[in-house]
Design goal:
The chain is built from 1 helix and 8 strands. It is mainly β.
Length: 160
């Protein structure tokens, strides 16, 4: 014999209502951070309102993920704090964003792109950079474990 679910559901509703009232209800000064539901996934807003506007990186159709190998690390100095650096696989058929970095207060930025990244990088693929949506003249060739040629200073991105 199965038990009806209504008594249990009513009990849960009563408990939740009591908890809501105990916390002050809608007029309470106590405010929880908003919870956002995106594509069925609950995300607590812990990184501030900008997290809601971060681009979604869709899975690649033309360039499937590669093996899990050491990431390439690209970095540099001298950019405006708060700027957004976006690294994109621009190899024909694989064009998609790989990683992004917000420039620190000291002007430093870094992106690490693993071989199994959703952008489908492989040895020899071209990685291009934008800074706040402006294309930089510099690009790099992705290699497992790769770093900029100038290890000390990194990549000096020019968007002029």
């Amino acid at each position: 014999m199965t038990r009806p679910v209504w008594p249990s559901a009513i009990a849960v509703l009563v408990v939740l209502t009591a908890a809501f009232a105990a916390c002050g209800g809608e007029d309470s000064d106590h405010k929880e951070p908003p919870i956002v539901v995106a594509d069925g996934v609950i995300v607590e807003e812990i990184l501030g309102p900008d997290i809601l506007y971060m681009p979604v990186i869709p899975p690649s159709d033309g360039c499937p993920q590669g093996p899990n190998v050491a990431p390439a690390s690209y970095y540099g100095f001298g950019l405006e704090p708060g700027a957004l650096v976006v690294a994109t696989n621009t190899t024909p058929g694989c064009e998609m964003v790989c990683e992004q970095s917000v420039v620190s207060g000291t002007g430093f930025w870094i992106v690490r792109i693993a071989g199994d990244n959703e952008c489908g990088v492989r040895e020899g693929h071209v990685i291009s950079f934008t800074v706040d949506g402006k294309l930089a003249t510099q690009s790099e060739i992705w290699r497992s474990g790769g770093v900029p040629d100038d290890v000390t200073n990194g990549i000096s991105l020019d968007i002029s």
